[in-house]
């Protein structure tokens, strides 16, 4: 019988010399995620980055959410992700060396 519990996943990346970075979080085998909230944060924002979240690959057809304040923002979602799918978050225009984090909340069924 499937079990359901709260989802609290995150991933981080250090932004490169152009202020860009990518976090890739994969849904584990035998789990389904119902994502209800996404949050983005960076450790410094002298240059305010943008952040865009995609499902499986970067591109207009896979766009889920985005923000012009990639240093500190969140969004409510209602997205189901199946085993093996990816959440990708791309930051651009941020501070070189800043640590960017994507947090994912909701429910996980396994």
Radius of gyration: 14 Å
CATH architecture: Sandwich
Counted up, domains total: 1
Question: Which range does the strand content fall in?
Answer: over 45%
Strand order across the largest sheet: 1-8-3-6
Level-1 CATH class name: Mainly Beta
Number of helices: 0
Order of helices and strands: EEEEEEEE
Total strands: 8
Structural class call reads mainly beta
Q: Roughly what is the average pLDDT, rounded to an integer?
A: 97
Sheet with most strands: 4 strands, antiparallel
- The rough form would be described as elongated
Kindly describe this structure.
The protein has 110 residues and is mostly beta strands. The chain has a single domain (4-109), classed as Jelly Rolls (Sandwich), CATH 2.60.120. 0% of the residues lie in helices and 61% in strands. It has strands at 4-14, 21-26, 32-42, 50-55, 63-67, 72-81, 86-92, 99-109. It is elongated and about 50 Å long. The N and C termini lie close together (9 Å). The mean pLDDT is 97.
């Amino acid at each position: 019988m499937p079990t359901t519990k709260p989802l609290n996943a995150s991933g981080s990346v250090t932004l490169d010399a152009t202020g860009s970075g990518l976090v890739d979080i994969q849904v584990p085998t035998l789990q389904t995620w119902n994502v209800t909230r996404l949050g983005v944060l960076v450790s410094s924002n002298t240059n305010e980055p943008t952040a865009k979240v995609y499902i499986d690959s970067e591109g207009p057809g896979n766009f889920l959410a985005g923000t012009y304040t990639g240093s500190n923002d969140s969004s409510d979602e209602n997205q189901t992700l199946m085993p093996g799918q990816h959440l990708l978050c791309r930051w651009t225009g941020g501070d070189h060396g800043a640590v960017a984090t994507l947090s994912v909340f909701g429910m996980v069924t396994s």
